[in-house]
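Hey, I'm writing a tutorial for new members on how sequence and structure tokens pair up, and I'd like a real worked example in the thread rather than a made-up one. If someone can provide the structure for the chain below, I'll link this post from the tutorial.
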Amino acid sequence: MKPQKRTQVSRGAWMTSLAVFCVLLVFLAIACVSSAKDTLAQQPVALPPPVVSVPPQSSPAVSLPPESSSPGAEPSVGPTLTSDETSEPAVAEPEFRTPLAGETVLGSYRQNGVNLRVSQITREELKMFVCEFFLDSPELLHTALAGGKITGRQYTSKIARSVGAVLAVNGDFCGYRTNGIIIREGEVLRDSPADWDLLYIDRDGDLRYGVSDSFDADRLVADGVRQSWCFGPLLVADGKKVEEMNRPGLSASHREPRTAIGQLGPLHYLLFVVDAIRDDDQVIGGMSFSTLADTLVELGCVTAYNLDGGGSTTLYFNGEVINEPCVNGERPVSDIIYLQ
């Protein structure tokens, strides 16, 4: 019986020891884990930096000035642009030509897209008037007929007043003849054969020319032509005097009162008048076509054309006739060129 009792006691002790050993292992594991956490907390682990993809930025529309490196300095700021400066570049003010020797300005007018200067030049027995002007549009150069019809007859001043003109000269006396291409304010009034020089204003405002028979009136209007004259001759072309002028039946070499129209540049024109006084068989003043062409070149014309002259030559400005028509007063004419 005694040997059996010792076996049971030894087995119980062994089981108790095993349980104690397992508990100790558990406490030891907990202690190791705790120690490891403390170590990791004290020693941070270096991680690789994150990679961030940034899309490239386009260049800025406006370049800003660099900031000053001086402490407390204000950054440099450029001038503030107004709305006019940022939208469109400034348009240069049109410049009138430099007055010639003996030229005196009589008056000016600037309104409704017209910028006009009227001056007088006196040289010995010559008295000339230069009406130089800029237009915002070629449509601002107008023509008018006496009584509204090509066969009418009225003084230049009366026609001018009827349309509210500030400046007017006689035209080509289109109602006196029956030939040539006559276009007024975009309407064809006549289209018949003529070997005279034709002058017209194209849609861009440039003076164009040629023999009337070489043009078709309807085609000109379709191309934007609003005014044409058939008289002449052409006096200046490409800035030079025309040496061989087309002057059928005209008093080319005689000194006469003259009226002419010329172009100096884009939408830049002049109307020219020179007076003459007839005293019996003597003529004081006036110009031949050759002298007239030389004068218009001197004034800067790139193109110039003779209009009706003699007793028809009349210049109306600011409500009155300012030249001296040679027929003891005005001659009734059929048409005028005017500004308003």
